Amino acid sequence: LNGSHSTLAYLGFLAGHEFIWQASADPLLATLIERLMAEEVLPTLAAPPGVDLGAYCAKLVERFRNPALPHRTQQIAMDGSQKLPQRLLGTVRDRIKTGGSIAHLALAVAGWIRYASGQDDAGKPIAVADPLAAKFASIATAARGNAAHVADGFLALTAVFGADLAANAVFRRAVSRDVGALFRDGVRRTL
Predict the structure, then answer these.
(1) For labelling alongside 60, which of 5, 134, 140, 190 has CA 20 to 30 A away?
(2) Would you tell me how many other CB atoms lie within 10 Å of the CB of residue 103?
(3) What is the b/e burial string over 173-186, where b = at least 16 CB atoms within 10 angstroms of the residue's CB?
């Protein structure tokens, strides 16, 4: 639930969606979160007795698309430095431990980095609400538009990524690749 919600928030906002229901109805983003859940998150979970995780994922997608739940992408994107470790990075660690793909998870993390760098695809400033917002702005300013430097600066934040992911070559390579694509091509072309 929360990992997919955050993924929709960061990439959805960058793609121009004000609300989660709009982002989840976008075919490109819908495909991403459906694959993220099915291919990378579900294999790390043990279903409680009587729970069909596939059906649960389908219900989540249905819930995300409900316009009666007007969650703003920026509202869900708030405090990402505190939410990311619980919502996505634990699953990243589980996948790395088993040698599984982290392609969709890496794109979600790259979406957060692109969002937290403070500028959207159109070059408009983003009001990043996060306890580390000043640090993010410092990283983005020092990078001077160089996506690789932005990725390196964010991935060095051990307060977010811990020492293990900050030093993990597989994770760094995947996230850096996607940060570069998001800066160069924007969300739609990257998806």
Answers:
(1) 190
(2) 15
(3) ebbbbbbbbbbeeb
Buried b (16+ CB within 10 A) or exposed e, 26-46: beebbebbbebbeebbeeeee
Within 8 A by CB and 6+ apart from 4, the residues are 33, 36, 37, 41, 60, 64
Q: Tell me how far apart the alpha carbons of residues 72 and 95 are, in angstroms, rounded to a whole number.
A: 30
Q: How many helices (H) and strands (E) does the chain have?
A: 12, 0
Structure tokens at 29: 């983003």
Give the Cα-Cα-Cα angle 45, 50, 55 (nearest 5 degrees): 65
Question: Which tokens go with 34?
Answer: 């459906």
What are 139-181's pLDDT values in tens digits? 999 999 899 999 999 999 999 999 999 999 999 999 999 999 9
Bin 78: left if φ > 0, else alpha if -120 < ψ < 50, else beta.
Answer: beta
| pTM tops 0.90, yes or no | yes
Distance from the Cα of residue 38 to its chain's centroid: 16
Tell me the HSE value of 26 on the side-chain side, using a 13 A CA sphere.
23
